Design the sequence.
């Protein structure tokens, strides 16, 4: 059934991945040095005065897009719970990759640019990624519970 709780959670994963792609993940600024660093799913932009240097982080957007596609495919496989559980496990790994790539860019590239003692602030895109990972894990648990319920009902027949 498409109305199940896990279906709604998988739909929220798709929405959250859209938020990750379209919003900043992390940002840091210094008024004294007139510098700012913003990490999005597509670029890491370092603005110093009037000059802006950007490096590509498109792999975060690609991983987020893959996670959204896996969630959509999993959402459409509601009659095949075992396949749905496998897709959910794969999606958890991809979502962990999104968060891992974000952390890598923040700690290895973003923070050392200026004022290393200033850690910066995580933005909406980061929290949407964490929410997507949690929603995917809860959906997997609910799918597994449904499968166990079906198997126990088959045994009783």
Sequence:
């Amino acid at each position: 059934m498409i109305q199940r709780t896990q279906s709604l959670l998988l739909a929220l994963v798709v929405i959250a991945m859209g938020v990750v792609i379209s919003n900043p993940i992390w940002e840091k600024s210094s008024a004294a040095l007139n510098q700012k660093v913003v990490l999005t799913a597509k670029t890491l932009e370092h603005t110093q005065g009037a000059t802006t240097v950007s490096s590509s982080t498109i792999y975060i957007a690609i991983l987020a897009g893959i996670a959204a596609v896996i969630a959509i495919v999993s959402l459409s496989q509601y009659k095949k719970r075992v396949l749905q559980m496998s897709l959910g496990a794969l999606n958890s790994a991809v979502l962990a990759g999104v968060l891992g790539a974000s952390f890598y860019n923040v700690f290895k590239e973003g923070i050392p640019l200026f004022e290393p003692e200033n850690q910066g602030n995580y933005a909406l895109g980061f929290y949407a990624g964490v929410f997507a990972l949690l929603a995917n894990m809860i959906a997997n648990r609910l799918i597994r519970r449904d499968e166990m319920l079906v198997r126990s009902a088959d045994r009783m027949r």
